[in-house]
Amino acid sequence: MLKASTQNTTRPGRTKQMEPRPEDKMEGYIGCGKLEDKVAIITGGDSGIGRAVSIAFAKEGADVAIVFLNEREDAEETKKIIESIGKRALLLEGDIGSRDFCEHAVEETISDFGRLDIVVNNAAEQTPHKDVKKISEEELLRTFQTNIFSMFYLVQAALPFLKEGSVVINTTSVVAYKGHEELLDYSATKGAVVTFTRSLSQMLAKKKIRVNAVAPGPIWTPLIPSTFPPEKVRNFGKDVPLGRAGQPDEVAPAFVFLASKDSAYITGQVIHVNGGEIVNG
Question: Which amino acids are annotated catalytic?
Answer without folding.
Answer: 186
